[in-house]
Design a protein that fits this description.
Elements: H1 2-46, H2 56-102, H3 117-125, H4 148-156, H5 159-166, H6 168-179
């Protein structure tokens, strides 16, 4: 039963679609015929029938008139094309602006700001902030113990003096005596 309903709905949808397409096709034909009639009327109004004169002088005058009309029409066409290009450019710019406004925003370059955790929480939470986030206060304090190596290093002092003392026969004698 459900499949029959689906088939009927699909068939009805297809029938409506084909009827709409037929209507659209007839409307397009009517528009084309109306445009053709309008074109014929315009041509009849603006372009009188051509009558060729018999003499050479009259033919030359007619040619000059036609050339001047062609030039004026070309100038108008050029002006209209320039206006059209300008308008298209403006439309393109406006559509880009619209896309920028609608689309993804570019992230602004972020600046590094020195701010403590407390100040950050205060800025985010406002007056609700009560927790102290002083992280350095929670750190364990460790005292350095003097190890023997560090003492030896401090006792040695400047390395140049140490090398001068060990150079030569006297230095070797001291090292030999110290070794024993």
């Amino acid at each position: 039963h459900l499949q029959k309903k689906r088939r009927a709905a699909t068939a009805r949808r297809q029938h409506l679609k084909s009827a709409m397409l037929q209507l659209a096709a007839t409307e397009i034909e009517k528009e084309a015929a109306a445009k053709e009639v309008e074109k014929q009327n315009y041509l009849a109004e603006h372009c009188p029938p051509l009558s060729l004169p018999g003499s050479m002088q009259e033919l030359q005058d007619l040619c000059r008139k036609l050339h001047s009309k062609i030039e004026s029409v070309d100038e108008e066409r050029y002006d209209i094309e320039v206006k059209l290009q300008k308008t298209n450019k403006e439309l393109e710019d406006l559509s880009l602006k619209l896309f920028d406004l609608k689309g993804k925003f570019k992230r602004p370059p972020l600046r590094r700001v020195r701010m403590s955790a407390d100040a950050m929480l205060r800025a985010l939470l406002g007056s609700k902030h009560k927790v102290c986030m002083d992280l350095r206060a929670n750190l364990k304090q460790v005292k350095k113990e003097d190890t023997e190596k560090e003492k030896d290093l401090r006792d040695v002092g400047d390395w140049r003096k140490n090398i001068e003392e060990k150079s030569g026969m006297e230095g070797r004698k001291k090292m030999f005596e110290a070794g024993e």
